[in-house]
Amino acid sequence: MTRIAVVTGAGRGLGEAIAARLVRDGYGVVYADLDPAAGARAAAGADPGREQTLDVQTDVRDLASMEACLSAAVERWGRVDVWVNNAARTQAAPFLEIDPADWDDVLATNLRGTYFGCRVAGRHMQERGSGRIINLASLAAQWGRSITGAHYAASKAGIVAVTRFAATALAPHGVTVNAIAPGPIDGPSVAAMPPETVAAYAKQIPVQRLGRPEEVAALAAFLASEESGFVTGATYDVNGGMVMR
How far apart are the first and last CA of the chain? Predict the structure, then answer.
């Protein structure tokens, strides 16, 4: 394999789409997911012969689990060139009614998990003198009307900050760190929402439709590539024009 990537939360949704795109581009890809069956299914779907993929059960909330994921990739291919922090927990809840346990778990999965990914991958890539880290933020981080809940929005806003700190720390070592902030994307999270909520969301989007997972994956593929070496610390909006900046 010319390049090796790890994608967390690769068993479904955006993670699966990003991992599949990287497989198609010739990468060796580690499908890291808390659900081992989902990771194995997604990997086999993208790579039936399993020549380019490895599925590893990974809990992004646990630093040792993330380190074990990196070790599995290095054992298989000798290195990691790209690390995508995608795994997330999404939960809708009224602002004044968020359960403290849910608040803690959403922040642990989304924000702490992203920090752990940046830390584990960053140390490995720093030693190698090159690498790409891609974090999945969200449109929810940019406004106060998110239907996903304040805890989710707070975690995604934190990811933008972590991205900038990681980019600053790792830039001198040939490692770039960027974030993607998707708006409403068709997939498992949207499918779980009431149809009327999805329809109302679509009406707010200037392009008049939901985004496609493949559109987010295409941007991730660019940020993962060698051609993106002069781009770091940035957050890219993929939201159909819902927020323009």
Answer: 38
**Which one is catalytic: 31, 115, 152, 236?**
152
H/E segment holding residue 236: strand 235-238
Give the SS3 label for residue 146: coil
Instruction: Please give the Cα distance from 141 to 108 (Å, whole number).
Output: 16
Residue 19 in contact with residue 97, Cβ under 8 Å? no
Main-chain dihedrals φ then ψ at residue 31, nearest 5 degrees: -90, 100
Q: Is 4 left (phi over 0), alpha (psi -120 to 50) or beta?
A: beta
- For the segment 145-170, what is each residue's pLDDT rounded down to a tens digit? 767 899 999 999 999 999 999 999 99
Is 152 annotated as catalytic? yes
pLDDT digits (tens, 9 = 90+) for 35-81: 999 999 999 999 999 999 999 999 999 999 999 999 999 999 999 99
pTM, entire model: 0.96
Going along the chain from its start, the domains and CATH numbers come out as: 4-238 (3.40.50.720)
Q: Which helix (H) or strand (E) holds 6?
A: strand 4-8
